Structures are given as structure tokens and as C-alpha cells.
């Protein structure tokens, strides 16, 4: 988690393609309170693979080997 100024937030929005790809969304964290996070929209998850390891690179490597 990072605290950023308006210029950095605008740069992060461009990097994450907010709101076209990821969406910056308020969430609540224990012991911290409300923060904003970039989340992948739930409606775009249909048909996407579940990556059990959580590691995209490992998933791609395993897929290549199959």
C-alpha cells in the first residue's frame, strides 16, 4: 500500500488503464480503514482461468509445457 499524490495517481490510472481495464475501487482494510485499490471488474472474469498458484508467469510456463 502506498500513499500517492494526484500526479502519481493519474500516472497509475494510465498504467492500469483505469477505468477501461482495471477499476480503482474503495475497499476497507483491517487496521487501516478505507483505501483505493485497482480491481479487475467481476463481470469480466467469466471464462478467465483460475490460477491456483497466483503466479501468472508460472501459469504461462506450465501452459507452454502442456
Write the layout of secondary structure elements.
Elements: H1 6-15, E1 23-29, E2 33-39, H2 56-65
Antiparallel strand pairs: 1-2
In short:
The protein has 2 helices and 2 strands; from the N terminus they run αββα. With 66 residues, it is an alpha+beta fold. The protein has one domain.
Task: Write structural notes for this entry.
- The chain is an alpha+beta fold and 66 residues long.
- It has one domain.
- The protein has helices at residues 6-15, 56-65; strands at 23-29, 33-39.
- Strands 1-2 form a two-stranded antiparallel sheet.
- The protein starts with 5 loop residues before the first helix and ends with a helix.
What descriptors fit this protein?
66 residues; alpha+beta; two-stranded antiparallel sheet; 2 helices; 21% strand; elongated
Poorly predicted runs: none
Rounded average pLDDT: 93
For the biggest β-sheet, the strand order reads 1-2
Globally, the shape reads elongated
Strand content: 15-25%
Distance from N terminus to C terminus (CA atoms, Å) equals 36 Å
What's the number of helices? 2
Q: Helix and strand string, N-terminal first?
A: HEEH
Largest sheet properties: 2 strands, antiparallel
Overall structural class, as computed from helix and strand content, comes to: alpha+beta
- The value of Rg in angstroms is 15 Å
Q: Structurally, how many domains make up the residues?
A: 1
Helix content: 25-40%
Q: Could you tell me the number of beta strands?
A: 2
